[in-house]
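Quarterly update from the structural biology core.
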Amino acid sequence: MNKNNPRTAKQVQISASSIRRSSEPTQQRIEMSDSRTEIKMSSKPASKNQTEPIQKRPCCNLFLSIKFFVLCHSLLQLAQLMISGYLKSSISTIEKRFGLSSQTSGLLAAFNEVGNTALIVFVSYFGSRVHRPRLIGFGAVLVSVAGLLMSLPHFIAEPYRYDHIDFDLPQDSASSLCLQSSPPTLALTSASGATTGNSSCALHSEAPQIVVVGLMFLAQTLLGVGAVPIQPFGISYIDDFAHPSNSPLYLGILFAATLIGPGMAYGLGGLMLRFYVDIDRMPEGGISLTPKDPRWVGAWWLGFLVSAGAVTLTALPYFFFPREMPKEDQELGLKKRILPSLDNKGENSLIKVETGNSPDKEKDGEIQIAPDLTVIQFIKTFPQVLLRNLRHPIFLLVVLAQVSMSSMVAGMATFLPKFLERQFSVTASFANLLIGSVSIPAAIVGIVTGGVLVKRFHLGPTRCAALGILGALTCLLLGLPLFFMGCSTHHIANVYAPSTLPENGDFLNCTQLCSCSKSDFNPVCDTSTDTEYVSPCQAGCTGLQGDPGPNQGSVIYTNCSCLISGIRNSSVTSGSCESSCGHLVLPFILLISLGGAVASLTHTPSFMLILRGVKNEDKSLAIGIQFMLLRILAWMPSPVLHGSAIDTACVFWADTCGMRSLCRYYDHDLLRHRFIGLQFFFKLGTLVCFILVYTILYQQEKDAAHSRSHHSSIPQEEKLVLSSEKRSGDSRV
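Predicted structure, tokenized:
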């Protein structure tokens, strides 16, 4: 082409450094990308259509606003954390519905981290090489599909049998009565009952159970995979196109909305578990259960449908956002009045970590993660950078402190509702409402307060470690009274007998004449002796008082001849015996919440210790490695560990088709001591790690002060000699 032709458009791509040397009066159009700055120059004057193509489509202006993106991303992260946290709010209900042990349910809750951990490392590699809004949208759709899969077991499983496992027996209150017979008839009935039970198990239980559990594990894996691109790509997108002064404010809004998600998950669980599980296929005549009945199972699946719908709605705008949008050029006037506790330097460091872009490919002779590496080069380089960071004592100890704290939080978030149900005889709905309205807001206040303290008092690394010690020690002390806030398990006939109340041999002989099925679970309580029986058959009851209708509350069983008290023809009430410690549930949750708020004070100081403790060239991956280690060492094993500890406190397991399924009764003292003891162990680990961090930092400051004082005592002539030698030699710092 002819260079002198004015009608011929010439487009030259140059780097940012060559602009300063260029003197041609050409019109410049700058396009910003994530990995480099590309400047395209054209000698042809740009027309109005070229400079303002958006003006013809005002409907698209909304998707070129970073403020609208912040709003959409806040809503998406809130919905995504609501669907991932909803499982924890209904974990005890799912155990009861499908006969799972606490160890299995803990593994199910931890499986969310498997898919997430497997792919989160590559986020630092892909960075901005992909269409980030569109990939966020696809991830959100996958999260929504995972939510639908979590609710699918309800629709493919048989209706819930709240009285017994045998499908050939009618589901009503009279089916659990004692049918006295002679020993020969009893043997015949037991044999036929066993045959019927085995056939029912083979037909209704074994294959669907495998399918149901497999679907839930698959859904949890997809949920973790779908959540991978949402937060990192959203943070990097906001930082790239927001005004530098507005970016901390936008991220503060984003993090605040993120913290609300778990609270809404527990609130949603408290609402949905008020409805009966088979509300869409209620049996004829209704049911005679109330939410306080131990056999009650709430509509756990309904919350997954609501959360999946919310994620789907919030995912739609991401398919209309451009890959790159114009850089925001206005600073918000309210920035200085909103979220003043944000540390701009710390937030910017966090953003660099999530984006995965490091300005230097090689510094101080050490390998760095560069944005132009291939996938193979990235996989080879990452382990070397990881090992170098793990050899840093401050980084390693702070991460171990956060691992201990996160292990405590993971176990508490997964099994605290179940613990409150068993220890204080409250409903699953009420337990979730307590956690969502008290514990989660207290943790949010603690995190914000920690950030305010760091910002207000300009805390350095040593003082951040001291704040970590103070928070961990206070949380540890607040947890000590929890060991004693509870009651022992009441007497359960033929299951759990206190040492002061030995079993009556006449009771065992009496129940053998009633041909009671092992699969029956319809607990009744003898209020005169505070003794509970697994079923009216175990109590020798042969009659009902009145005709119990749907939702009529307790049922009175009469003519009970096998009571421990020895009183003949007495009556018992349906449902478990009330706990004598029900009044302690509010002080317990307040103490738990206060300890969680104090422990949350260490959140921001921990990040500051990592950002200010590692080398500058390693900050780009320090936070990413930290989150990866938290998932592997805390969020994955902790629910399984807590579930196993809870299972060891079980005193009566349900027998489903000859196999142990879920736990019906726990030793309350053993449950409390092991659950709170495991929490105490993790709190102690956090405290020890922060003490070691403080010791190292204090010693470093002491050595630095001693070095400065020693340097000031050297004569001026020796200082000049040392200074010239230092300039001539290579620096070893």
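The mean pLDDT is 76.
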